[in-house]
From TrEMBL:
Organism taxonomic ancestry: Eukaryota, Fungi, Dikarya, Basidiomycota, Agaricomycotina
Region ranges (Disordered): 143-167
Membrane-spanning intervals of the chain: none
GO MF term (any one): zinc ion binding
Protein name: MYND-type domain-containing protein
Organism of origin: Exidia glandulosa HHB12029
């Protein structure tokens, strides 16, 4: 139901009282043991009884099923249809970082790295180990290799730090592929209200519209922060060379080789202004973009 009707189900899921129960049970399943109090859990138990020794899922031979079910659920929270890829997972685990760190770290160390939810587990580990008071050096070696750079050693190089123009643009395109909302300026319509799929732009096959009026406004209106008239040809140019099956490294190379620097900046800013990021994150990334633009222009002037 979360994947099919997220705008209606997700707000109920992250209601504080319900969220505590769901997080508690997900932690038990990630540990592979519904008959345990999750490691790092503090305060009152949101479910009664807090452990269930008689549950069929408590049987040792059910551990793999528990692990995969919980991992699949987190994957849907993070990247399911209509997910705000950067925000929704954080909203789900906020306040429960410590038990979710221990649960996802344990699960990521045991699950097959080819499982579709492995990167989601590592994403939670990367975001929560500080809250759990755990030093990076204590992470499982294969998990450590997947959680990204140490925050204390990050540089001004976006390709090394992960906030790269190719990476952010790719994340936004992934968001658009899953979203079932209208891309028209200030339009809030969804397919749930209309009861029909929204057609995509016939040129770039990326953004969706509830109707021709929204499409016209997004194409050229001053109401649109980034006119699709300007963005569409850049997307067509990029997607003629890059595709979703590429590795991050392949995508980054295609992004840089296909687009000139001005086009890269334009798509990056377009992606930042989408619904992926919080206002604070948008502010920080725009500051980063401004520093990068200034640096490149100074280099050009010095030649």
């Amino acid at each position: 139901m979360l994947n099919l009707a997220r705008p209606y189900t997700f707000p109920h899921l992250v209601d504080d009282a319900r969220r505590a129960k769901v997080v508690y049970i997900i932690c038990q399943l990630l540990h592979g043991n519904p008959a345990m109090i999750p490691t790092g859990w503090e305060g009152a138990f949101p479910v009664s009884p807090p452990v269930d020794f008689d549950s069929p899922l408590s049987a040792p031979d059910q551990e793999r099923l528990q692990l995969h079910a919980a991992t699949d659920f987190l994957g849907i929270v993070a990247t399911g249809l209509d997910a705000r890829i950067v925000q929704d997972l954080g909203i789900f685990y906020r306040g429960y970082e410590k038990p979710l760190f221990h649960a996802t770290h344990s699960a990521a160390a045991r699950i097959d790295t080819r499982h579709g939810g492995y990167q989601t587990l590592c994403q939670v580990v990367s975001s929560t180990y500080d809250f759990a008071g755990v030093d990076r050096s204590r992470l499982n070696p294969r998990v450590l290799a997947s959680v990204g750079p140490d925050r204390d050693t990050q540089t001004e190089d976006p390709e090394k730090d992960g906030n790269s123009m190719p990476g952010v643009t790719r994340a936004y395109l992934s968001q658009l592929a899953r979203a079932r909302t209208c891309s028209g300026p200030n339009c809030t319509k969804t397919i749930y209200e209309e009861g029909r799929p929204f057609p995509v732009c016939s040129r770039c096959k990326t953004v969706r519209y509830c109707g021709p009026e929204c499409q016209k406004r997004d194409w050229s209106s001053a109401q649109a922060p980034h006119r699709h008239k300007d963005i569409c040809p850049l997307l067509r140019q990029l997607l003629a060379e890059a595709n979703p099956t590429m590795t991050n490294e392949q995508w980054a190379k295609a992004f840089v080789h296909t687009l000139d620097i001005e086009a890269q900046w334009k798509l990056f800013e377009w992606a930042i202004d989408g619904p992926l990021f919080s206002e604070e994150s948008k502010r920080r990334m725009k500051q980063f973009l401004q520093r990068m633009v200034s640096m490149v222009r100074r280099l050009c002037m010095s030649k």
